[in-house]
């Protein structure tokens, strides 16, 4: 068996084409340009690259982006203050705190300073709760991108046994909840799970989200399984790609699988947030912008 590639770049391009049209319609309707604000703390080269990529994608779909760069020596209170200012700014529709932040900062406190109405990266407790209960809100961007990728290939999830290897608050845990919401039976595992190979071998759908290259051996994969590799370290995924490709029915490449879907989901949720903000302003005329945002 040779696995079919789950091409995140191609699917993301389709999503971004749709977002570009939605942004154009929004500008025509409301005479302002949606804005995504990104907050970057420190000088990690990879984080700078990610933020630059997101700014470039914003420009390509016609959105504005505002970059807030802060030194690695700031305090949690200072970071929280910047995020609260962006939350209160009527020109900002979405907020992204590039993570991880330096270790001395309380990342959870920073996430919770983001207004859930602008949490287009889906990192707040409110977003996790509303997503888990299927009550709206914003999906965590990478899990939301994974689900969109599976949908693009018409991969059935109801009744399937999904195994998620990873338990982070912004990837492993939320993607499991999204799969559960689609009627999959979900097992959570992680790098310390006993008999990890046995759990993986029972997965109809496997999501690897640890960030430890080669953690998942290709020979563990159930023949015909769908494998989504969301791990990334040193340009390598969590799954032994070549060996897994001989057993899986579908498999994401690394890079080019999950990564592009994360950015596409982020921007799709930003234009949605912009529309919801305008709906709120119509309902409450006191909520007005400070300018058209066309500069």
UniProtKB/TrEMBL annotation:
Residues 276-285 have a biased composition (Basic and acidic residues). It catalyses: (6R)-5,10-methylene-5,6,7,8-tetrahydrofolate + NADP(+) = (6R)-5,10-methenyltetrahydrofolate + NADPH; (6R)-5,10-methenyltetrahydrofolate + H2O = (6R)-10-formyltetrahydrofolate + H(+). Residues 6-121 form the Tetrahydrofolate dehydrogenase/cyclohydrolase catalytic domain. Keywords: Amino-acid biosynthesis, Histidine biosynthesis, Hydrolase, Methionine biosynthesis, Multifunctional enzyme, NADP, One-carbon metabolism, Oxidoreductase, Purine biosynthesis. GO terms for cellular component: cytosol. Residues 276-295 are annotated as: Disordered. One of its GO terms (biological process) is L-histidine biosynthetic process. NADP(+) binds at residues 166-168. Its EC number is 1.5.1.5, 3.5.4.9. One of its GO terms (molecular function) is methylenetetrahydrofolate dehydrogenase (NADP+) activity. Transmembrane segments: none annotated. Pathway: One-carbon metabolism; tetrahydrofolate interconversion. Residues 140-277 form the Tetrahydrofolate dehydrogenase/cyclohydrolase NAD(P)-binding domain. Catalyzes the oxidation of 5,10-methylenetetrahydrofolate to 5,10-methenyltetrahydrofolate and then the hydrolysis of 5,10-methenyltetrahydrofolate to 10-formyltetrahydrofolate. Homodimer. Belongs to the tetrahydrofolate dehydrogenase/cyclohydrolase family. This is Bifunctional protein FolD.
């Amino acid at each position: 068996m040779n696995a079919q590639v789950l091409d995140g770049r191609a699917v993301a391009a389709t999503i971004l084409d749709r977002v570009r049209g939605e942004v154009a319609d929004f500008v025509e309707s409301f005479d302002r340009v949606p804005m995504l604000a990104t907050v970057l703390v420190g000088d990690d080269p990879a984080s700078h690259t990610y933020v630059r990529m997101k700014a470039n994608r914003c420009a390509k779909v016609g959105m504005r982006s505002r970059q807030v760069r802060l030194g690695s020596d700031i305090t949690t209170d200072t970071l929280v203050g910047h995020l609260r200012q962006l939350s209160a700014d009527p020109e900002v529709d979405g907020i992204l705190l590039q993570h991880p932040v330096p270790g001395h900062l309380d990342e959870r406190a920073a996430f919770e300073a983001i207004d859930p109405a602008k949490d287009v990266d889906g990192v707040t407790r409110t977003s996790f709760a509303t997503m888990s209960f299927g009550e709206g809100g914003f999906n965590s961007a990478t899990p939301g991108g994974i689900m969109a990728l599976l949908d693009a290939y018409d991969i059935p999830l109801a009744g399937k046994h999904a195994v998620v290897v990873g338990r982070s608050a912004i990837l492993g845990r939320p993607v499991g909840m999204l799969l559960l919401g689609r009627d999959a039976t979900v097992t959570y595992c992680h790098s310390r799970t006993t008999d990890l190979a046995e759990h993986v071998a029972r997965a109809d759908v496997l999501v690897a989200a640890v960030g430890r290259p080669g953690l998942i051996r290709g020979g563990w994969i159930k023949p015909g399984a769908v494998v989504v590799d969301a791990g990334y370290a040193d340009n390598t995924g969590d799954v032994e790609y070549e060996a897994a490709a001989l057993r899986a029915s579908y498999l994401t490449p690394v890079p080019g699988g999950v990564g592009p879907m994360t950015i596409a989901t982020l921007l799709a949720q930003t234009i949605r947030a912009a529309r919801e903000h305008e709906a709120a302003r119509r309902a409450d005329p006191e909520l007005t912008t400070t300018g058209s945002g066309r500069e």
